[in-house]
Amino acid sequence: MGAVPYLALVSALAALGLAGFFYTDVKKASPGNERMQFLMNEIQSGARAFLKQEYTWVAGFVAVLAILIAALISIPAAITYVLGALLSALAGYAGMTVATMANARTTEAAKEGPAKALPIAFRGGAVMGFSVAGLALAGLMVVYILFVLVIKVDDAFEVVTAFGLGASSIALFSRVGGGIFTKAADVGADLVGKVEAGIPEDDPRNPATIADNVGDNVGDVAGMGADLFESYAGSIIAPVALTAFSLGLIADSTGVDGPDGAGNISLLVFPMFVAFVGMISSIVGSFLVKGGTSTDTKALSRALHMGTNVAMGLTVVGTLIGAFWLFNDSAYFDNPLGLAISVIGGLIAGWALGKTAEYYTSDHFNPVRQIAAQSETGPATTILKGISAGMVSVAASVLLLLLGIGIAYWGGELAVGDGLIDRGFDGGIYGIAVAAIGMLATTGVVVSVDAYGPIADNAGGIAEMAELDPSVREVTDALDSLGNTTAAVAKGFAVGSAALTALALFKSFEFAISAASDGEILLDLDIGNIEVFLGLFAGAMLPFLFAALTIDAVGRAANKMIEEVRRQFREIPGLREGKPGVVPDSAKCVAISTQASLREMAVPGALAVVVPLIIGFLPNGINALGGFLAGALVTGFAMAIFMANAGGAWDNAKKYIESGHHGGKGSDPHKAAVVGDTVGDPFKDTSGPSMNILIKVMTIVSLVFASAFVSGPFA
Amino acid sequence: MGAVPYLALVSALAALGLAGFFYTDVKKASPGNERMQFLMNEIQSGARAFLKQEYTWVAGFVAVLAILIAALISIPAAITYVLGALLSALAGYAGMTVATMANARTTEAAKEGPAKALPIAFRGGAVMGFSVAGLALAGLMVVYILFVLVIKVDDAFEVVTAFGLGASSIALFSRVGGGIFTKAADVGADLVGKVEAGIPEDDPRNPATIADNVGDNVGDVAGMGADLFESYAGSIIAPVALTAFSLGLIADSTGVDGPDGAGNISLLVFPMFVAFVGMISSIVGSFLVKGGTSTDTKALSRALHMGTNVAMGLTVVGTLIGAFWLFNDSAYFDNPLGLAISVIGGLIAGWALGKTAEYYTSDHFNPVRQIAAQSETGPATTILKGISAGMVSVAASVLLLLLGIGIAYWGGELAVGDGLIDRGFDGGIYGIAVAAIGMLATTGVVVSVDAYGPIADNAGGIAEMAELDPSVREVTDALDSLGNTTAAVAKGFAVGSAALTALALFKSFEFAISAASDGEILLDLDIGNIEVFLGLFAGAMLPFLFAALTIDAVGRAANKMIEEVRRQFREIPGLREGKPGVVPDSAKCVAISTQASLREMAVPGALAVVVPLIIGFLPNGINALGGFLAGALVTGFAMAIFMANAGGAWDNAKKYIESGHHGGKGSDPHKAAVVGDTVGDPFKDTSGPSMNILIKVMTIVSLVFASAFVSGPFA
């Protein structure tokens, strides 16, 4: 059992090796003609410029919080906090660099058909996928081995948790900042380009086209990568922290010690074992994604999904074996397979959440078609139908989540025996915590497929801007649509795991308060307590405020972009007419979107960290904070689902009409659907996805600062 | 002290007498020419037809629930339940009858200027106001005197609470059904009439015009009246129930007995005393609303608001005196004025909530103007800005509410001394409960002013349809705009008191469970409990589902209306052209809207009652139900504010543009603003206001059925 952290570390390093292999593999491919390389470099340098400025800004934030952690918690915690942030930033930077290399190469390969192009786009995405998973797991295992097993610092598990807070900090700002950037550029490019100037999407004359493509990379690649980095790390940290805080484990001469040696260790390393199994499975799965010789899209789709499906299947088998091995100690465990049920329950719940999202956002099903039908009576009915469909999807998703939580809880209760129950260990909550890992163990391959999407999308943009033969665009469009199903499942995993992880971290917070005060202060989270209820109210309000701030941020950033595009069309002679040799100042657009999005992300981003700290340090604040976190979690989850699904549904209703229904492109219903799509843009790409991280950031910041709250000035 | 319930009863009967006096006063006025009388009769018979059918439908529901209450709780509880429902229905019917009489009379009086017309519209509304307040208070006092003081039934306070559930049942269906009716008619009339046929608002050729005016009465008069009836009754019941359940009071030979005679009685009768003072103050205030001789709108506005302001001032003074009188027993109370602070704190919080709503929805302030400015860039930005403004208003409102709760809690803690604290009585929560009465004690005059609005609105419609001189319409429009400020304050009271009352009822639920099981079953509402957390999740989801169902209901009902109006324009020769003698089939439109709204209200209405019952009867259900109620309360409050304010803001942004800004009527920004307004219609008039009742209905149904849950099959 002692070997598990090392096994996990080795699997993480293998993932990093694989990322390196895929990098060289992608690099070997031809990036196409000069024009294509020029475009690729523009996008790449724009994306890098954004990331550099974003990281500079966030570095200041991280530095302040690191000092606070060093002063109030401990220096090792500050170190792991910074490490978590650094590795997440590194994964984002590496993944995005390769993604912005893979785009032109995918376009070039698309000249020879989808079978050639698919592996390049996938492997480009896989650099991101395995960088994210590899760096997160490797970093976490190094922290665990170093601080818990080797140096054995005081409050070792607080130190481990701080790694997660570092990852969350980056994820929050990446999602918010990237989300604002991508939508500001998108809206700016569309509104002035398509609507005012009447030129097609991705037209080289449009100054915002490059920014739009940069946005896909910083939002959908870097933002999504940072999100999954923190989700993945958080899902491993949550059950470890829960075990450690609730059993009062400490790092001592034997490595980790507490009242029940064997039982403890099994519980501590099981999450790592699942991560190890998932990583190996992902590596195996990633090699199964091959183009083959067929150009049939069904066959290609099978090839793309094969990797994920095999990885998940292997993870299930590995988890069963691991549970059987780790939990066969009858003194502490009743049913060795109980926790495997939790993990598998989580996997199924995440899959079902993803399928629900697909049902509500795909034009193969009723909700999107009804929205499209409502566009016949104008934009108002389109909006209302999208809102109600999004809200109904909340009900469906919450019921599925509750079912998943119930199964995971039951599995945990089955597993844990009296030896642990007598010590106050709650097997059910532990089951919930490991259910999140069920969803995220295959992060490597899941993120690969997710990052594949924007690469294929960018490849299409380059084909358009480089004015290649329309057949190339057709191939890239086909590739683009392939990833959708798996992307939906990945979204389900992200949002489902966020709820489970936050719930487990929330429980850890309760134990951490007790542990930090040597059992003197116990949280009293009875909803009937007035502080708890006030906290609950405030927590339920926060997602509304956060959504409003991010929506307004996109609006303001988009306005700046619109002004700049209009200015260029007005002031650069011959640009609108497409006079040869006249090129737009794309870099200016990128710079404007960068500045605007970084300025705009500050308030909502800081809010997520500052508000829990303020509440926690108030007199009687910790109970109110408990209520606050719970209120924010349940309402934030609902808002995340509502905004993501309503936004996705409007987007696809528009596409459904564009594909020739209800009058097709240019008809009045299409105009109404475009209104829906524009309303949905910040919903689905900025506010909604940020909400997932919001609820975790607030919980993990509370957990890390638990000991400071307890010894705070008003405690 | 024993006299207080009788005093309250007498004041309630006086209010009913006043309603009768105002009725004859209004009836004396001339209803105008034949055409006006015809229109008035059309509206009145349409509204009556709707109410009759609605009440028939709801009677079935009430009968089923009454049988359930008789079987599971007690026969007296079933009787008071039915009584609460009956009286609420009676108040709605009476108030609406007079409102639909007062409209044409206001139009007729408007020929002689606003000073003549104002008192008629106000007194028409006041019949509603004093019927609502009088019947609610009289009914409640009769129930209290009869079942608690005279017959002394077992579980007497459960019986009192059931009266509130009866009122809630009617309120829920009236709000949902009325809200669907009014918006279906409004949208139908506007879309086909104004947009397709190009005829002005309230044009007599439009078959849906009568239905639209009927809608104002069934939604804004009857729906609002039922809402306030239940809010008012609920705000008195909540502190009474809290006191009785938490101190274990029973009706016995001395009337009411429990461990601390004097302290108990003071706590029981204080809410009734505040209601008594508020009723007398309202009666005094209502006589101060006089037209005078001035036709200056400022002077008229002062006259209208004078009634409310004086009533509130007198209530504050009376409350201070009452608190001093009732709580001067040092054995149980430390500070006799503490609970007056709670009441006044509630009054101020409600006022501030109303002002916040006004800030976010009036075109004198930034939010609405920003929405209007965003309409320059089309409907999408109009929608986004309205959504974000509505969401920001949630943050402001929640913070104010929390402040109000804090003050009320503090006042209660100040007041209650060790003699009660030792018995586990929570003075702070009691303070929160009576704060709601602070907002609602002047319901009589507040509802009068609120019902005044739709009467003035209808009067304008009749002026238009009867083709009177445009100067008459100008007067009615001026009258219409007068009531807005006070209406905003009334909205603040409604939503604020809903949160406070629900919170107090929630606490009573905790005590009721313990009391019903003789202290054997205690709710364990620690958020860390898995059932509680699952309940919290489900509760936070429900307002989303409820909003979706009601939005969709409006959409479907409006579609039916649109089809009918189109059909009439198509099939009735000469209608569109306005050929003399050709009249539309208005009754058909009323019938269609009636049928559609009644069919559509069934599912969302039943949901509110059925879901808590299902959860409560589940194994381990009561803790989950506690979490569920809390989750629904905090999220429902946020959604209610969001939807009401976003909807109101869009409405006024449209009106702001129509008054000549951003291009005025017919411009592109105006078209964008119309989209916002249409989206906002079901937000502000259907889903939003229903949400207030939803959260209370679910709590009160749980409270009434508490003893059944405890002895249920899975308990």
Described by strand count, sense and barrel closure, the largest sheet of chain A is: 2 strands, antiparallel
Runs of chain A in which pLDDT lies below 50 for 5 or more consecutive residues are none
Q: Kindly, what is the distance between the CA atoms of the first and last residues of chain A, rounded to a whole number of angstroms?
A: 40 Å
Strand content of chain A: under 5%
Spatial strand sequence of the major β-sheet of chain A: 1-2
The pLDDT mean of chain A sits at 90
Shape of chain A: globular
Count of DSSP strands of chain A: 2
Helix content of chain A: over 70%
Number of distinct helices of chain A: 21
* Structural class by secondary-structure content of chain A: mainly alpha
Instruction: State the oligomer.
Output: homodimer
Please name the two chains that share the biggest interface, counting residues whose Cβ lies under 8 Å from a Cβ on the partner chain: A-B, 73 and 72 residues
Order of secondary-structure elements of chain A: HHHHHHEEHHHHHHHHHHHHHHH
Radius of gyration of chain A: 25 Å
